[in-house]
Every structure is written in C-alpha cells, then in structure tokens.
Fold:
Amino acid sequence: MQAVPSLPTPVVDGIDQIGIDQVHAGRTPGIAIGVVEDGRLVYARGFGFATLWPHAPMTPDTEFYAGGLTMEFTAAAILLASQDGKLKLDDPLSKYVPEFRLGANVTIAQLLTQTSGLPGYAAVRGISTDPTRTIKLAKLLAAVDELKPAAPPGTVYADNPLNYFLAALALERATGVPLSDYLEQHIFIPLVMNHTFLAGDSGISNARASGYTRSGRAFVNAPTWDPAWLDGDAGLVSTIDDLAKWDIEMPVLLRVDSVRTIFTSGTSAGPTHYGMGWVIDRRGGQDFDWANGEISGYRSMNAVLPNQHVAVIVLSNADSLNGEVTIPESVGVRVLDVLAPPASALDNAVITKAKDWLERLATHHIDRAALTPAFSAYLTDDLVARENFAALGTLQVIVPISSTTESNGDTLYEFLVRYPRAQYHYDFELAPDGKVDGITLMS
Structure:
C-alpha cells in the first residue's frame, strides 16, 4: 500500500512526476522513492513494476538488492564493535587476517575509507571472477596476495570491493559472529528493519523486485550474482521503509564520535572525498553525504543533507551494464531540487569558464596546465573519449545554481545545463589557484 505523503501537494506532485517520467521513458521497469524530513518518512511511493512477467506493482515495501549501500552498514557494524572494545580502527588487518600478507600494513580504517592501496581482484590469475559463480574467499585472497599493491596505504581513494570483504572478515574474527548475524543483532532488530538482511542469508521474499538488464530496447531478467561476491560490499537487501529507518536512527544508534568518523573523508587527494561507506560532498553550501550501488539487475542511492534534516532514497530494478537506464543518483538530485532548491551565487567569469570546459571536453582540447595534478591524472584521454561529450550536441542553456567553499579550499559551482535532448546537473570545481579540480555532469 502506498504511503500517504505529508508534504505540500506541489512538492508531492513534483516528486511523483520524476518517478512517472522514468518509467514512461522506458528507463527502468520500476522505481521506488522515499523522502525523510525532520525524522519522519514523509514520502514513499513506487512507480512501474516490481516484476514484468507477471506484472506486479512497485511499492515502498518492495525488497531490492541495494548493492553498494551495504558499505554504510558494514562500516557502522565495525564502529559499533569498536565502541564495544572488540577491535580498533587503527588495528592492522594482519591482527585478524594474518594469512593475507599483502594487507600487513593496512588498517581497518583504511579498508573502510577505501584507501588501503590494495589491488583489485579483476587482475588475479588462475581463478574465475565470474560473479554468477560462487567463490571461496580464502582462495580469492590467496590469489590477490600474489599481486603488487596499487598504492601505499592511506594515500589514494579507490573503490575496491576487496576492502569491504576484508573488513567483514576482520569483524567476524574479532567478534566471533558472521557479518549477517552481527548486523541483525545490532542494527536490523534494534531499528525494526524487518525486511533487511544480507543476500543468501534468509532468502529474498516474494515481495521482491526482479532485477533486469537491457537487451536492445527491451528489459530481460538479469543474471543473478552469487552472494559470495556481495557480502559486506554489496549484499544488502532492503526496502524504502527500512532504509528510511536507517537514515533516521543511525545518528542515534552510533556515538557522536563514531558518526563524525563515518562522515570524515579518508583522504583529501583526488576528486572523490570518501568517508566510511559514504561520499562526503557539498550541495548548495550544505553538507551532502551520499552513497550509491549497482549489481546485476539493480541500482540504488541514499543521500542525506544532515544540516537540513532531509534524506532521499531511490531504488530501481534495472542495471546499466548493458545500456542506458535510470540513474538513481540523478533522480535523487532532482528530488532534492524539488525539496530544497539551492540558491544562486555565481559571476559571469565563472560561467564563461564552466561553458568553455564543456566545449573543451566535447572537442577533446584539454589544457592540462589548467587542471590540478590530481584531476589531470583522473581525467585521462581515454576517459574523455569514452564519455563522448560531443554526442550531447550543442549547449543551449546554462543556469547558475550555487557556489560552495569546500573543506580543502576549492570552490564548487553548480549549474543546470540543457542540451537538445536532455537537461543535466553540472558541477564545476576550482582550486584556490583557479585550476579545475573536478567536473561532473549528471542527468
């Protein structure tokens, strides 16, 4: 049953239209959207279908695989264990997983902030990394142990599922309890999250959303990934209602110092500032913490504006592994624009510079002397070619939204930009010396 929203009618209508548009445009079979405001779930609705064959409607009670949102919970579980004295964040991984020699100088905190410097498992030889087939973690770790580190620990952020696999294993050995049981005992039961668990644990119910992927213009059932590949990185199954309880109660469940730790970036280098399970961001001059996820058949996003006491949750049952689909991060930003529009504060010189860089990306005329070293390393020629900005067409409109001073001294400028076929949010970040330190375009 759809929840009765407690927001002004124009706001409800605006959010409804966002969800309806995604389904009618054929970008996803179904989508569920939730809004938390001042500690209450004030909006929760589903659009489209949880399953296409047979048709079953999407609702806020529909269970989804939430992918990378799992990391919020794994990090919180380890913080809770730390509060209870079961482990310390600065403990070396070798204290709990001594057989993994490559992690000898990596701390638990570095695993959670994704700054371990460990290599990804995609490069291992001799074992299959097909996520539809099961894997023994011990075998995977032994194979990765033959590789070289990707970076010194604590220096570089890199999204690596291995970090949260190892963090979950360390928690299990420190507490004597598997991650799934620890989450249930310390988070899911206390917060009455009755429809939340780890994949492969108790089995997803009949009230689930089937996962789909593109096959040409049609959606087909996506391959099912084995739970062994998900675990503490991507194994969460949940609903809009349960994730809303999490957004409301997480700051109460954890101590103040633990909450501060989770929302503190592990490194200031590079374009992404990442805490523990959350991207640490800014929007319209306010703190903006968000996480997203994607596995076969599903995409998700959970975003919080802590100073404004607002959270947005978006879940969809189509992956982007085989074509263009709904992007929950973009949907979430559009919902936030309806709820809390940021104020404009930009000058013409910045607007001109922001427009110039969109043209440079489209024509591949990248002036690397005008980029910070970190962003230049990230913005490779291959990445520019792959993103294919020229395919957007001619820029028609650029509308300034806001400017924000970041903790590292950068200024983040936000725009709405319109091309012939679509409108985008455009983030343009400048370092104190005027060099470009980040460019993001989201539909």
Notes: Residues 348-442 form a domain with the Nuclear Transport Factor 2; Chain: A, fold (CATH 3.10.450.590). The two ends are 30 Å apart (CA to CA).
